[in-house]
Structure formats: C-alpha cells, structure tokens
Design brief:
Helix content is about 35%, strand content about 35%. By secondary structure, the chain is of the alpha+beta class. The protein has a single domain, classed as Alpha-Beta Plaits, CATH 3.30.70. An eight-stranded antiparallel β-barrel has the order 1-3-2-10-7-9-8-6, surrounded by four helices. The chain has a two-stranded antiparallel ribbon with strand order 4-5.
Length: about 250
C-alpha cells in the first residue's frame, strides 16, 4: 500500500466549502481511478489553516499513472479557490530601475510513502470516518536502522495499538524520497480515544523501545532534555500531530 500526502493551507472558514468540493467532485472522481483505496481531507487540530489531502493506493504504479494523467491538476483547480496563497513576494529591479513586486503562489507539498506494516483491519468506511481523528508521527532514523524499527513496529507497536480502545486502523510508511524518513499513521474512533491513548503512557513506552533507531541528532536532543529537564528544539524532532477528518471515503 502507498500513501500520497498533499499538504496545503486552508483559507479561514473554508472547511465547509472544502467538504462540499470533496463530496461532490474529488471523492467521486478518485473513486473512478484504478488503484485508489481511500481519500480524505484532514485539518490540523493545532493549526486550523493546515490541511492535508491523504490518499491510499494499491501500488506505486497506480500513483505514477494518476500523477501523469492530469487528474491531480484537474482536482487541485476545484479546491484552489479555498486555499491560501503564499505570503512570499518576489522583488526585482526593472530596466528603468523601479521595483516590481510579484506574489509567488505556493504550491502544495506532495510526498509519497510506501507502507511496510499495517493493522490487518478494513479502512474505515465513509460516514463513520467523518467523526474520527488521525495521529501522524514523523521521525528520522539512523542509516541502517529501518529494518529494526520496522520489526519493532510490526511485532510490538501494531499489537499494542490494536488493543487500544478506539484505534480503527494503523500503518507505518517510509518516504519514497528519503529512505530514513518514517511516518506512522493511526486512525481513531474519536478525539477522546486518541487523547486517552496519549495519556496512557503507551506512546512513551513505545518511544523508549525504538529510540535507539532514531537519528543521532535526535538522541542527543533527548539526552539534553533529560539533563536540563526542558524541551530542546531541533530540525530532526519527532513530530506528533492530530487531525480531524473533514471529508473522506474508503473505496475498497
């Protein structure tokens, strides 16, 4: 299974309009595309303007065919009126030495990940999924430690998640561009279930089991935090985010 991850910025108050576009245009169109298993639009709990379009695919060949078909550009055009443009401005000097300002439109960030381990359950169906929450954990591993992390995730983390009340689906993916970038996704029945898991201490226990596989820079950060009893920010931090599903449907 492959995950295609498109990160965008929503305009304030655009959530209902985006849901309508997905329900009437994007979901029906992707349902016709070979190999697409699931699609959902999600919004960040921490940053309401941060949105993600997440699709699951059977194989990378289906992803490539979709990207080359022009359908992505077609669907992006339907949702673009509800996305924020970049605040960046490009400044240049014209031939008569007057300043010219041109806004630079920010394109969505697209990443593709391959799933190496997943919970053996069905992807949540349309309707029920709208009340669910996603937890996305991303981190950098040391070179050569991917197989070790994958083994622990498959043998220990997935069984623990399966026993956690409210966990409906979970999988681990590896970036197609960066071998050591890992993203773990779990889908929860409700915000309360996701919060209960976070407070149970199970996540911290699993982090202890896998921390020897993390990048050396991140391990140094954790050692500093223990020493000074305060958080230290680095460029390779483990990122934990919770998202609400705005619209979505499973096709299989």
């Amino acid at each position: 299974m492959y995950m295609r991850f498109v990160k965008v910025k929503y305009k304030p108050g655009a959530e209902s309009a985006i849901r309508a576009v997905y329900d009437t245009a994007i979901i029906p169109r992707l349902e016709q595309i070979d190999g697409c298993l699931c699609v959902c639009a999600i919004a960040s709990e921490k940053n309401p303007e941060e949105g993600i379009s997440l699709t699951l695919w059977e194989t990378p060949e289906y992803v490539k065919a979709y990207e080359e078909s022009g359908v992505y550009e077609e669907l992006l055009a339907k949702v673009r009126p509800f996305l924020l443009d970049s605040a960046e401005w490009r400044v240049q000097l014209s031939r008569d030495f007057t300043l010219e300002y041109q806004p630079v439109q920010e394109e969505p960030v697209i990443k593709t990940f391959s799933s190496t381990a997943q919970m053996n359950t069905d992807i949540p169906e349309h309707g029920a999924a709208l009340h669910m929450y996603l937890r996305i954990v991303s981190l950098q591993l040391q070179p050569g430690k991917l197989n070790e992390f994958n083994r622990i995730y498959d043998d220990e983390i997935l069984p623990a998640l399966k026993k956690s009340p409210g966990c409906r689906f979970a999988f681990m993916t590896v970036s197609s561009d960066k071998e050591n970038e890992v993203v773990c996704v779990s889908i929860w029945r409700s915000r309360q279930d996701a919060d209960a898991y976070e407070k149970s201490g199970l996540f911290e226990k699993m982090r202890e089991r896998t921390k020897h596989t993390y990048s050396e820079f991140y391990q140094w950060k954790m050692a500093l935090e223990r020493q000074h009893k305060s958080e230290v920010a680095t460029s390779e931090d483990m990122k934990r985010d919770t998202y609400r599903i705005v619209a979505g449907k499973s096709f299989k």
